[in-house]
Amino acid sequence: MKGKDRWNDLFELAMYVLAGGCFVYFLVKGNGAKMFQAVLIVAVLQLIRLVVKWTKTTMFTSLRFCVLMFIFVTMFLANEFGYYGVIPYLDKIEHLFSGVILCFIGLLVYSKAADPQEGAGSSTSNIAVWLCLFFSIAMAGVWEIYEFATDHLFGLNSQNGSLLDTMTDIICGTSGAILTACYLALRAKKRALPMVDIR
Question: Residues 54, 62: contact at Cβ < 8 Å?
Fold first, then answer.
């Protein structure tokens, strides 16, 4: 576990270095918006660390890697480097990946709320998997509600004015959640250990 987390530390450090490099490059180019993006990336990474410290939560290795990868894809590739026009369906890939992350966050919520004295029966693991799945699917819907609200209140175009875009995003998020829930269920069955230990 320690070795794997060391890779996450290196990954996060590389993102700080890349953000610094982007800031200097776009400073020379005189692109204020891209400079702000670089600062925002560092701010998001620091905010995650603050939330983890404030809530006294240990982010398990899989979740931390997924969050760092999501930040890299969405904030570096998509926004900083403008890959939305280069990688087909990048937005859908992001929604698929968000389903994975939200499923792991559901597991984290369950782990924090569960009573460790209650044991580690298969029924506990089943409850945790279902909670992770439904939490993730619900959050995919909440995100689309947020996009709908901001589009209509502020004249944005997050949903491309299309029900097809909205539903495809929810389907992608749900697909990511289902795949992750299946993975968690297999791990729980294989180990026959507490849900908190299947990450």
Answer: no
d(CA 195, CA 109): 12
Q: Walk along the chain (199 residues) in steps of 10 and give the mean pLDDT of each run.
A: 77 96 95 92 94 86 90 89 84 90 89 63 76 92 88 79 87 94 86 49
Residue 163's pLDDT is what?
Answer: 86
Q: Which residues 6+ apart lie within 8 Å of 130 measured at CB?
A: 181
Q: What is the reported pLDDT for 194?
A: 46
HSE toward the beta carbon, residue 27, CA cutoff 13 A? 8
Residues counted in the chain? 199
Task: Sort 183 into a burial class: Cβ within 10 Å, 0-12 / 13-18 / 19+.
Answer: middle
- The 3-state DSSP class for residue 31 equals coil
The model carries a pTM of 0.75
Task: Report phi then psi at 29, rounded to 5.
Answer: -75, -15
Buried b (16+ CB within 10 A) or exposed e, 114-129: beeeeebeeebbeebb
